[in-house]
Specification:
Low-confidence stretches: none
Order of helices and strands: H
Helix content: over 70%
Structural class: mainly alpha
Number of helices: 1
Shape: rod-shaped
Strand content: under 5%
């Protein structure tokens, strides 16, 4: 082998070593990306469950806040029914005398 061939061979070996180092670094980065993707999937799942919980809580709050309004409406209805009964009773009392 000539010196030029030996130099070419050494350059090829150095180039191969450099390529192997780059591949090793890329493998680490790909592994990190896979871990990040898995973590993002878990986070997305947690966010979805949280949104469902928030929707459920909002529905519960609406139902609870409607209870006093329903009671108020019922009380007004009872008062109006009592007043109407009193007026009808007074009218009937006046007619039947």
């Amino acid at each position: 082998m000539t010196t030029e061939e030996i130099k070419r061979l050494e350059n090829a070996i150095q180039s191969a070593k450099s390529a192997h180092h780059r591949i090793d670094r890329l493998n680490e980065e790909v592994s990190d990306l896979h871990k990040l993707t898995e973590a993002m999937a878990v986070t997305a799942n947690n966010v979805e469950r949280l949104q469902n919980d928030v929707t459920e809580i909002k529905d519960d709050i609406k139902a609870l806040s409607a209870v006093p309004a329903n009671r108020w409406n019922a009380a007004v209805g009872y008062v109006l029914a009592a007043l109407a009964s009193g007026v009808v009773g007074a009218l009937l009392g006046g007619i039947l005398r």
